[in-house]
Design a protein that fits this description.
The protein has 3 helices and 11 strands. It is of the alpha+beta class. It has a single domain (about 5-175), classed as STM4215-like (2-Layer Sandwich). The strands form 2 sheets. Strands 1, 2, 3, 4, 7, 8, 9 and 10 form an 8-stranded mixed sheet that branches. Strands 5-6-11 form a 3-stranded antiparallel sheet, with no helix packed on it. Strand 2 (about 25-30), helix 2 and strand 3 (about 50-55) form a beta-alpha-beta unit. The longest helix is centred in the middle third of the chain and has 16 residues, at about 105-120. It is elongated.
């Protein structure tokens, strides 16, 4: 269950950490794009590389925040229940850029991204393996690809990912279930006044 923005970001960043493409381990880094960073990044940048920038998540079109609480799920002896909020349908956007000085290696990186990211329909976050099966949180996404024109001899392509995430931002709370209701009635004699 995806329950925080940080958790979604960490799961996404793990997908690109130390990828082995064409026998080379590719470094990935967080890209903080501003007018002050460009010159610094060029001085000490190691190629090939993957740069990732995240954006503030937003509620998807058609999604909403449900303020109501719901009760569901009981323990085995029916003494505890869970009060929960419905998840919010969120959009998480990321820019992932691949860059290389070698055109041959750049083509290998593009091929790797085509096989593992562009031609897939979803990510599996919080992945657990049981025998031959994998389970986890299914996160569908779309990706837009843009070539970045550069004049410094670097080949670069940007992949804009838009993830569709059901975020359980408020954790369920365990509450006691009412076991017995005692209702007492006192019958009073009517008083007659003379």
């Amino acid at each position: 269950m995806l329950s925080s923005v940080q958790q979604v970001n960490e799961e996404f960043f793990k997908l690109f950490h130390r990828l082995n493409i064409g026998g080379i381990v590719v470094n990935s880094r967080y890209a903080k794009k501003s007018s002050f960073d460009y010159v610094e990044e060029q001085k000490n940048q190691i190629y090939p590389c993957i740069s990732i920038q995240d954006f503030a998540p937003t509620i998807r079109e058609g999604g909403y925040v449900d303020p109501h609480e719901y009760t569901g799920g009981m323990n085995s002896d029916n003494t505890k229940a869970f009060v929960y909020h419905r998840p919010t349908w969120m959009s998480f956007r990321y820019d992932v850029s691949i860059a290389s000085k070698s055109y041959k290696y750049f083509m290998e990186m593009q091929q790797y991204f085509a096989e593992h990211f562009v031609n897939q329909l979803r990510f599996v976050f919080n992945k657990k393996t049981f025998g031959d099966s994998e389970v986890g949180d299914i996160v569908p996404y779309t990706v837009n690809i843009t070539d970045i024109p550069r004049t410094d001899g670097i080949f670069e392509t940007n992949y804009e990912f838009d993830l569709s995430v059901w975020l359980y931002a408020v954790p369920p709370q365990e509450v006691d279930v009412i076991q017995e209701v005692n209702v007492g009635v006192n019958i009073m004699e009517p008083q007659v006044s003379e």
